[in-house]
Amino acid sequence: MNFVPHWYSATIFAGGSVNNWDNANPKSAAVRERFQKRVSAATYLRWERARAAHNNGIENFPLLIAAVILGNMAKLDAGMMNWTFGTFLLFRAIFIVAYIEISDRRLSVIRTLVFCISVLQCLWIIFKAGNVYAG
After folding, report:
1. 126-133, long-range: CB within 8 Å, 24+ apart, which pairs?
2. Which residue from 83, 85, 114 is spatially nearest to 97, judged by alpha carbons?
3. Model pTM?
4. Dihedral through CA 7, CA 95, CA 38, CA 31, nearest 10?
5. Residue 2 burial by CB count (10 A; 0-12/13-18/19+): exposed, middle or buried?
6. Contact call for residues 13 and 21 (beta carbons, < 8 A)
7. What is the pLDDT along the chain (135 residues), one digit of tens a residue?
8. SS3 per residue for 95-127
């Protein structure tokens, strides 16, 4: 799911032409500068939000993996874990859409709340696993 904002940002960047993408040096500041000059400010900001949504997913992936491993090691109820991780995925999908779509600073708090709900799902599993091990 986390690659969706990556692919979306690449689509925005390429603008329908593979020639706009420099695969040899895709993170170059010069490439970004040329892109920023050829698109509108709104398009550039949308691209930045899509990149940020992708990066956020990568940054939070270790928390998800830790929760899955610890929950399985603690032999937590499979139904509860499935529901919790299903909720996590649902809120991550909402988060990605909110991150890309919401450009208003005041409304961005929605994205933050959705993010917190998704992270709390993983923390809940880690907490439950800790309780099993604590005795």
Report:
1. 126/66, 126/67, 126/70, 126/71, 128/71, 128/74, 128/76, 128/80, 129/67, 129/70, 129/71, 129/73, 129/74, 129/76, 130/70, 132/74, 132/75, 132/76, 133/74
2. 114
3. 0.89
4. -60
5. middle
6. yes
7. 888 998 888 888 887 666 666 778 777 888 888 888 989 999 999 999 999 999 999 999 999 999 999 999 999 999 999 999 999 999 999 999 999 999 999 999 999 999 999 999 999 999 999 999 998
8. HHHHHHHCCCCCCHHHHHHHHHHHHHHHHHHHH
> Taken in order 48, 39, 93, 117, is the CA torsion positive or negative?
positive
CB count in 10 Å sphere of residue 53: 23
